[in-house]
Amino acid sequence: LFATIAIYSNVVLKNLQTFSQENMENVEIHAKGVNISRTIEVEYEDQIQEFKNALLRGQDPAMFVKSVNAFDERGKKITDNLIALTNLMRDMPEKEILDLTDNALKNHHDLMVKYHAALNLYQTDNIHSIFVVDNLVKNVDTDFIQNIDEIVDFHQNQIDKHIRENQLLSTHVMTQFHNYIISIGVVAAMLYLIWSTFTLLSILRPIKRATEMLEQVSEGNYIPVNEFSKNELGSIMQGIKMIGIKFGFEAAEDQRSAREM
């Protein structure tokens, strides 16, 4: 019984450990996805700041070029991180994230084109061109920002899902294990009851038979000889049998003496 419980516990725990390990690996992947997405958000804020620097300091041509180069460098980092997100999820079963990252890549590329088109209209010797350029790019990044928010939400939802699955599985396994132990206990109790019943019957039957034999002996009847078991009850039955034989001989002797007289 204990061996069965031990084997069952070992199998259940191994399965739970395997599933939990896979789930935690998925959680780690999605947590990395959240971190990369948050990094993209920060880098995009820095990229927009470089765009603003180009407009505000652009009256100095050298500062304008420096700010534009920094703007492009931030954009390259964002593209690299979006590609990293795609590669991170390429072998995962949730393929919808690939559509999200592809859309983000496309929207960011379109943003870069629009921002550069606006910067090409900037005139270093005309401060009023700042307002022209700024109006051209107003709210053009709405789709891209939404893309990043959706990617973050996706990864966070997947983290919550895998953690919840772990908790549900642990509860389910513990409930199953509890029910299994109860079932084993019930079966063990039934087997013990059956064994006890047969044991009691094996004791009561010889006692009943011994009682009947003693009644026959007390009435002076002959007791036929049978084989008995070699346990304590068998010894008692054999003793009663010997008494019966002795009394039978004595009864036969008394009858013979009475006939001779």
Overview of this protein structure:
It is a single chain. Helix 2 packs antiparallel against helix 3. The relative contact order is 0.09. The chain is an all-alpha fold and 261 residues long. The mean pLDDT is 79. The longest helix is centred in the last third of the chain and has 77 residues, at 142-218. It has helices spanning 2-56, 61-89, 96-119, 129-136, 142-218, 232-260.
Q: How would you describe this structure in keywords?
A:
mainly alpha, 6 helices, rod-shaped
What's the quick description here?
With 261 residues, the protein is mostly helical.
Helix content: over 70%
Order of helices and strands: HHHHHH
The chain-level structural class is mainly alpha
| Strand portion | under 5%
Q: Taking all residues together, what is the mean pLDDT? A: 79
Number of helices: 6
Shape type: rod-shaped
Q: Which radius of gyration do the C-alpha atoms yield?
A: 47 Å
Give the strand tally: 0
- How far from one another are the termini? 73 Å
Unreliable stretches covering 5 or more consecutive residues: none
Largest sheet: none
